[in-house]
Specification:
This protein is mostly helical. The chain contains three helices and no strands.
């Protein structure tokens, strides 16, 4: 049986990588991938804690987070497509000024 600390260490590593991507990268699509990586780290924590608890509440919360993440990606990609149509770029530095 794998100890809980391994799951938590892996989730912390995934969250840290996702946070670094969000802070460092300037491409909007890559930033969205970093956010998804952070959400997956939270899901890993929920499922890991659920494994050591007889209730299935952690797995239900994880399923809810997956559904919310899918909806978030749909809305975010729609916004990125509109920004690309208007500015012809997806780099966040170039669209920082949203003036006409």
């Amino acid at each position: 049986m794998i100890p809980l600390s391994y799951f938590l260490l892996t989730a912390a590593l995934l969250f840290s990588i996702g946070l670094a991507i969000v802070i460092i990268k300037r491409n909007a699509i890559v930033v969205l991938m970093g956010v998804e990586l952070m959400l997956n780290a939270a899901n890993l924590n929920l499922v890991a804690f659920s494994r050591f608890d007889p209730d299935l509440t952690g797995q239900f919360f994880s399923l809810f987070v997956i559904i919310v993440a899918a909806a978030e990606i749909v809305v975010a990609l729609a916004i990125v497509l509109k920004v690309f149509q208007h500015f012809n770029t997806v780099h966040l530095d170039e669209v920082a000024e949203m003036k006409d």
